[in-house]
Amino acid sequence: MENKSLNLKNLYKYFVAGLMLIGTAVIGMIIYLYWPVSDGINNYNAKRDRQVILDIFDKDWYWLVSGDRSSFSPEHMIDTNSPNKYNADLQGKEKIKVFLVNGKMAGFITYYKKKAYQGQIHIIQVLPEYRGRGYAKQLMRSAIDDLFKDPAISLIKLVTRTNNPTAIKLYLGLGFTEEVRDDALVDFTLKRVDYAK
Fold this sequence. Notes:
Layout: H1 2-34, E1 40-43, H2 46-64, H3 74-80, E2 95-101, E3 104-115, E4 118-126, H4 135-148, E5 155-161, H5 165-173, E6 177-181, E7 185-191
Parallel strand pairs: 4-5
Antiparallel strand pairs: 1-2, 2-3, 3-4, 5-7, 6-7
Helix pairs in contact: 2-3
């Protein structure tokens, strides 16, 4: 009789422990799925960010891409985390970060490791209504810091339009140096030793 009573007590303990474990898992899942995302720099979330980024490309193509749609697909970039369709070595390597303000996208940046020693800032954009608040600088610093976490990367490159003085000032202020300029584009390089934190 005593053995039966001990078994029932043990069974009850396991039942309560199981309920607590299930309750903890359910609460954790609710927090994960519904907890508001913090403002500032966040990882790209397709459900939240995809259409906003595509709308930005539709509106600001000239400022974001030097070619036309035959040479670059923003859909491919954000769906595959790849800078282009043509270089298989870079498939899945591009990182996309977004800057949120009150849960809404204020801007985004994309970057990747292009070569063993080189990082590439691919695209950065802050929406007009959020400009002048330092968000581009925060996105740039986040990408640069992330790329330079890799000890093999000794330099980071980027390209912008020659008629974008605000971006040029930002890049120079971070330690980038102008490498090549033509009528349309200017190439910048940041060496690890020149990074102005």
